[in-house]
Give the backbone structure.
Amino acid sequence: MSPLPILVIKAHAVKRLKTGHPWIFSNELTRLPKELEPGQAVDIQNHRGEWIGRGYFNPRSLIAVRLLNRERTEINEDFLEQKISQAQALRGQWLGGEEACRVVYGEADGLPGLIIDRYGPVWVVQFLTAGMDRLTEPVLRILIKRFRPAAVVARNDTASRALEGLVQDKRLLYGALPSPLVIRKNDLSFEVDVWEGQKTGFFLDQSENYRCLDGMVRGARVLDAFCYTGAWGLHAARYGAGEVIGLDSSEKAVSEAQANARRNGLASASTYLQEDVFDGLRRLYKAKKRFDCVILDPPAFAKSRQKVKEAVRGYKEINRLAMMLLSPGGVLVTCSCSHLIGQSLFREILVSAAADAERSFYITAWRTQGRDHPIDLAIPETQYLKCVFLQAK
């Protein structure tokens, strides 16, 4: 391997890197070399000339360098295959033979900027950074060689790619997509749209949280707000809920939720309605409807720091309305996948919503994303999902 360009970091940045965090911000470099191309591999040294690690550089990004390796080994196909194989082995250890899961979760698996999700025979990849985008071909070869997928889809339609100076697109990289693509999740069947669906087609990060409804909703009247394709509500129905009502603003999502209910023999217990969720919650309250369990799993309200104040207002309002819709002793399952809304802020939002709703609650569980989205101790950014179970007093 020919020598890589060397970038030098300032003294104050060294401590964080030594804990295992892989990011170097542009203001932590002694010089921001404009002559290097986005995604180019670089070596990192400290201010004393000591070697720190190897990664890739993007002068267009606030996160100027993302470290891939703390050893002097080449970032090549063998390196990538080792990392992907290690990540897959961990999922096997944690989840057994789960056919639908996240196989690679970026920084947590030592591959910052790379997401790989498996939906049975179909694999979906996201190359979120310029450095990872350059490695598309070797990653594709590894997936084909090791896992023999029916298809590999690149869902490169995320806003984060624009921040890296990359185009947003969707491409079939390999094979042909089966139609329909149906996965099993907790003994339920769901059709997954990897081409147009939210995230990469399914909310895999909630897989373990869905099971917490078991023993909690038997005979209950359940409201599943932001139901998407019905995962929360159908789990509730499977665990014995007497009635499930789902709300979502997307006509396509509601249609898919209804189809999934029929697919699982749960249509008689499930009703899905297309409606703005805020309007729907207000309508139900005015109609004096009450529920034994309300589930709130909205999309990310805060996708940038500029949106945090607006997001806080949105989260508070939907939680206030949901709390007012609960029967005495009812359970609220409330979630936020906005990484900019931390756990302490989310708790403050819930406290404020409860005060306005004039309700009191116990926290019976405070959960996060499933183990296929592992949280790295040294990288707090790898934890984003809050899933809180509140029981009304």
